[in-house]
Predict the 3D structure of the following.
Amino acid sequence: MEGDFVVFVIGMRVNQLWAVHKWAPVLRAMPRMLRELFAKRDLGMMHAEYFLGWRGAMVLQYWRSYEQLHAYAHARDKAHLPAWAAFNQAARGNQAVGIYHESYLMTPGSHESVYANMPLFGLAKAGKAVAAVGSMQNAAARLNRSFVG
Protein backbone atom coordinates (compact mmCIF):
# COMPACT_ATOMS: atom_id res chain seq x y z
CA MET A 1 0.00 0.00 0.00
CA GLU A 2 1.47 3.33 -1.00
CA GLY A 3 1.00 6.30 1.28
CA ASP A 4 -1.16 6.72 4.36
CA PHE A 5 -4.45 4.89 4.79
CA VAL A 6 -6.89 3.89 7.53
CA VAL A 7 -7.89 0.47 8.83
CA PHE A 8 -11.35 0.74 10.34
CA VAL A 9 -12.97 -2.08 12.31
CA ILE A 10 -16.65 -1.75 13.14
CA GLY A 11 -18.96 -4.28 14.67
CA MET A 12 -21.83 -5.22 16.89
CA ARG A 13 -22.41 -7.75 19.64
CA VAL A 14 -25.75 -9.26 20.59
CA ASN A 15 -26.00 -9.05 24.38
CA GLN A 16 -29.59 -10.26 24.73
CA LEU A 17 -30.43 -13.00 22.24
CA TRP A 18 -34.19 -12.77 22.88
CA ALA A 19 -34.28 -9.02 22.03
CA VAL A 20 -34.24 -9.61 18.25
CA HIS A 21 -36.28 -6.44 17.67
CA LYS A 22 -33.40 -4.44 19.21
CA TRP A 23 -30.36 -6.00 17.48
CA ALA A 24 -31.76 -7.07 14.08
CA PRO A 25 -32.04 -3.47 12.78
CA VAL A 26 -28.40 -2.87 13.76
CA LEU A 27 -27.35 -6.02 11.88
CA ARG A 28 -29.36 -4.97 8.80
CA ALA A 29 -27.90 -1.43 8.73
CA MET A 30 -24.33 -2.38 7.80
CA PRO A 31 -25.04 -4.06 4.43
CA ARG A 32 -26.90 -0.89 3.33
CA MET A 33 -23.85 1.23 4.16
CA LEU A 34 -21.47 -1.19 2.46
CA ARG A 35 -23.57 -1.22 -0.73
CA GLU A 36 -23.45 2.57 -0.76
CA LEU A 37 -19.68 2.65 -0.15
CA PHE A 38 -18.88 0.01 -2.79
CA ALA A 39 -21.10 1.84 -5.32
CA LYS A 40 -19.52 5.25 -4.58
CA ARG A 41 -15.77 4.59 -4.44
CA ASP A 42 -15.05 8.33 -4.42
CA LEU A 43 -16.27 8.37 -0.78
CA GLY A 44 -12.94 6.79 0.15
CA MET A 45 -13.52 3.19 1.18
CA MET A 46 -11.11 0.98 -0.77
CA HIS A 47 -12.32 -2.43 0.42
CA ALA A 48 -14.26 -4.20 3.17
CA GLU A 49 -14.52 -7.74 4.51
CA TYR A 50 -17.67 -8.78 6.42
CA PHE A 51 -17.56 -11.36 9.23
CA LEU A 52 -20.49 -13.01 11.00
CA GLY A 53 -20.01 -14.68 14.34
CA TRP A 54 -22.06 -16.41 17.00
CA ARG A 55 -23.10 -13.21 18.76
CA GLY A 56 -22.51 -10.51 16.21
CA ALA A 57 -20.91 -9.14 13.11
CA MET A 58 -17.76 -7.24 12.25
CA VAL A 59 -16.58 -5.37 9.18
CA LEU A 60 -12.91 -4.77 8.42
CA GLN A 61 -12.61 -1.70 6.19
CA TYR A 62 -9.74 0.05 4.42
CA TRP A 63 -10.04 3.79 3.74
CA ARG A 64 -7.86 6.18 1.73
CA SER A 65 -7.87 8.73 4.54
CA TYR A 66 -9.28 9.47 7.97
CA GLU A 67 -10.79 12.66 6.55
CA GLN A 68 -12.90 10.63 4.10
CA LEU A 69 -13.98 8.18 6.81
CA HIS A 70 -14.96 11.07 9.09
CA ALA A 71 -16.79 12.88 6.27
CA TYR A 72 -18.82 9.76 5.46
CA ALA A 73 -19.70 9.18 9.12
CA HIS A 74 -21.08 12.73 9.43
CA ALA A 75 -22.67 13.21 6.00
CA ARG A 76 -26.38 13.94 6.32
CA ASP A 77 -27.12 12.57 2.84
CA LYS A 78 -25.44 9.16 3.34
CA ALA A 79 -26.64 5.93 5.01
CA HIS A 80 -24.48 6.09 8.16
CA LEU A 81 -25.92 9.08 10.02
CA PRO A 82 -29.57 7.89 9.92
CA ALA A 83 -28.42 4.41 11.02
CA TRP A 84 -26.45 5.93 13.90
CA ALA A 85 -29.44 8.01 15.00
CA ALA A 86 -31.72 4.95 14.82
CA PHE A 87 -29.28 2.92 16.90
CA ASN A 88 -29.10 5.63 19.57
CA GLN A 89 -32.88 5.81 19.70
CA ALA A 90 -33.32 2.02 19.91
CA ALA A 91 -30.49 1.50 22.41
CA ARG A 92 -31.71 4.13 24.86
CA GLY A 93 -32.57 2.45 28.15
CA ASN A 94 -31.40 -1.06 27.26
CA GLN A 95 -28.23 -3.03 26.61
CA ALA A 96 -29.55 -5.59 24.11
CA VAL A 97 -26.89 -4.80 21.55
CA GLY A 98 -23.43 -3.32 21.77
CA ILE A 99 -21.40 -1.66 19.05
CA TYR A 100 -17.74 -0.80 18.66
CA HIS A 101 -15.28 0.65 16.23
CA GLU A 102 -11.53 0.99 16.07
CA SER A 103 -9.55 3.26 13.74
CA TYR A 104 -5.91 2.70 12.88
CA LEU A 105 -4.07 5.43 10.98
CA MET A 106 -1.40 3.66 8.95
CA THR A 107 1.75 5.17 7.50
CA PRO A 108 4.28 3.60 5.14
CA GLY A 109 6.60 1.20 6.93
CA SER A 110 4.26 0.73 9.90
CA HIS A 111 2.43 -2.38 8.71
CA GLU A 112 2.86 -5.65 6.90
CA SER A 113 0.51 -8.34 5.70
CA VAL A 114 1.40 -11.93 4.92
CA TYR A 115 -0.86 -14.28 2.98
CA ALA A 116 -0.06 -17.92 2.19
CA ASN A 117 -2.34 -20.06 0.03
CA MET A 118 -4.97 -17.33 0.07
CA PRO A 119 -7.03 -15.58 -2.59
CA LEU A 120 -6.78 -11.80 -2.51
CA PHE A 121 -8.03 -10.75 0.91
CA GLY A 122 -7.98 -7.77 3.26
CA LEU A 123 -5.25 -5.23 2.64
CA ALA A 124 -3.98 -7.16 -0.40
CA LYS A 125 -7.41 -6.65 -1.98
CA ALA A 126 -7.59 -2.98 -0.98
CA GLY A 127 -4.12 -2.26 -2.30
CA LYS A 128 -1.73 -4.45 -4.22
CA ALA A 129 -0.29 -7.88 -3.40
CA VAL A 130 3.49 -8.13 -3.72
CA ALA A 131 5.33 -11.45 -3.64
CA ALA A 132 7.61 -11.97 -0.62
CA VAL A 133 10.74 -12.81 -2.58
CA GLY A 134 14.34 -11.66 -2.34
CA SER A 135 14.78 -8.97 0.29
CA MET A 136 11.03 -9.12 1.06
CA GLN A 137 11.31 -12.63 2.57
CA ASN A 138 11.49 -11.48 6.19
CA ALA A 139 9.34 -9.16 8.27
CA ALA A 140 12.15 -6.74 9.13
CA ALA A 141 12.86 -6.16 5.44
CA ARG A 142 9.16 -5.74 4.58
CA LEU A 143 8.87 -3.13 7.30
CA ASN A 144 12.18 -1.53 6.31
CA ARG A 145 13.57 -2.17 9.78
CA SER A 146 16.87 -3.55 10.94
CA PHE A 147 17.26 -5.45 14.19
CA VAL A 148 20.46 -6.30 15.93
CA GLY A 149 20.10 -9.74 17.48
Observations:
- The first strand starts at residue 5 and ends at 14.
- The mean pLDDT is 89.
- Residues 129 and 138 are 16 Å apart (CA to CA).
- Helices lie at 20-39, 66-74, 80-91, 122-126, 139-142.
